[in-house]
Automatic annotation (TrEMBL):
GO terms for molecular function: metal ion binding; oxidoreductase activity. Keywords: Iron, Metal-binding, Oxidoreductase. PROSITE patterns: FE2OG_OXY (PS51471). Residues 198-303 form the Fe2OG dioxygenase domain. It comes from Capsaspora owczarzaki (strain ATCC 30864). This is 2OG-Fe(II) oxygenase. Gene3D superfamilies: B-lactam Antibiotic, Isopenicillin N Synthase, Chain (2.60.120.330). It comes from the Eukaryota. Belongs to the iron/ascorbate-dependent oxidoreductase family. The lineage of its organism: Eukaryota, Filasterea, Capsaspora. InterPro entries: DIOX_N, IPNS-like_FE2OG_OXY, IPNS-like_sf, Iron_ascorbate_oxido_reductase, Oxoglu/Fe-dep_dioxygenase_dom.
Length: 372
């Protein structure tokens, strides 16, 4: 079968159609405020139904009513832009090549998607662990300390990033509760089984202004090539969403809309695995054809790193209102999904092994360092 974690060559599609404006509003806006405790039952049920449609038929939605303070977002983006405006020599002080756990800054073109360089630079963060933490002492991959800019130049940055990650983790739990209910499961189903201690990579990307978005040889230049995300959810915040493009079930590509006060949320591979293709991890890409420098903050809410992943058989009760989920006896997904990342996987698999190989493919020059 070969390496099931490698990039599937069938995903390297060429001559894909250009994206169009989402005039039909194919990607829905969902106000999740009604998922909070004490909200009227009818309002909560309406949100659950909207999530059911978004997760099964689209794979993306705009998240309103999330309650994340605008001041926190402003501080995150303004300080990140200040750091990224520094000379390369300054940013190299926290280069990812200094880290064995994929933390720190990488230069423009330093990350690959499907073997091709992305036209972006960025910073990788994660749960910030001390040197004496058991996972660090055990040299668990992707577990360790973050790299931070000089505290004299950026005195509040560590606190801002740490606070943001904490807030987004709770938001991830809330959205996952709604998705569980949309599948007929108990709200805490995923938290009890798979996400009690979620793995939460956090990245900040800068896409430079690129009015032409073509290489010298005439090929299109992508901020990020076509891909799906790896875990449960991605929650994307950005002051300018321009450039994100989403593939619908029909094969049509649409441009993400700029909707103030919302995050863009999309489903990852593991939710598609658990539901045996019922929930959709949608392909997407980024092309910053504009005169605007674009910054984004994708937060990844993933299963526990050591979580063992198996497809689930979800069976509804006679009245269709509730469901139970058990490990599937038949775990062959090849006929249930077109997602090349998961069709050939062999189960059970540890989530940490899955994401580690994916990130190693993105940074092949750092692969051996990450194993030391």
């Amino acid at each position: 079968m070969g390496d099931p974690y490698a990039v599937d060559a069938s995903s390297l599609r060429t001559n894909l159609p250009a994206a169009v404006e989402d005039e039909r509003l194919a990607v829905p806006v969902i106000d999740i405020a009604a998922l909070a405790p004490g909200a009227p039952a009818a309002d909560r049920q309406r949100v659950i139904e909207q999530l059911r449609f978004a997760c099964r038929d689209v794979g993306f939605f705009y998240c309103a009513g999330h309650g994340v303070p605008q001041q926190l977002l402003d501080a995150l983006f303004s300080t990140t832009l200040d750091f990224l405006a520094k000379p390369t020599e300054y940013k190299q002080r926290i280069a990812m090549s200094n880290s064995r756990v994929f933390r720190g800054w990488f230069a423009l073109g330093g990350e690959l998607t499907s073997y091709r360089a992305d036209w972006k630079e960025g910073i990788y963060f994660g749960e910030d662990l001390a040197d004496n933490h058991p996972d660090v002492l055990a040299k668990k991959p992707m577990h360790g300390a973050n790299q931070w800019p000089d505290v004299q130049d950026f005195p509040e940055y560590k606190q801002t990033v740490t606070t943001y990650m904490s807030v987004m983790t709770e938001l991830g739990h809330t959205i996952m509760e709604g998705i569980a209910e949309s599948l007929g499961l108990a709200p805490d189903f995923f938290r009890k089984a798979f996400t009690a201690n979620p793995f939460t990579p956090f990245r900040l990307f800068h896409y430079p202004a690129d009015p032409v978005a073509k290489h010298e040889n005439g090929e299109e230049r992508w901020g990020v090539g076509v891909h799906r995300d790896y875990g449960c959810l991605t929650v994307l915040s950005s002051p300018n969403i321009i450039g994100l493009e989403i593939e619908l079930k029909t094969g049509e590509w649409v441009k993400a809309r700029q909707i103030p006060g919302t995050f863009v949320v999309n489903i990852g591979d593991m939710l598609e695995v658990w539901t045996k293709g019922v929930v959709r991890a949608a392909p997407h890409r980024v092309k910053n054809v504009s005169n605007v420098n674009r910054i984004t903050a994708p937060f990844f809410f993933d299963p526990n790193f050591d979580c063992m992943i198996n497809p689930l058989d979800i069976t509804f009760s006679d009245d269709g209102k509730t469901a139970t989920a058990v490990t599937a006896k038949d775990t062959d997904l090849s006929s249930l999904t077109t997602n090349p990342s998961i069709r050939s996987l062999t189960f059970p698999l540890r989530y940490g092994d899955y994401i580690l190989k994916k990130v190693q493919n993105n940074f092949p020059e750092l692969e051996q360092m990450s194993l030391k």
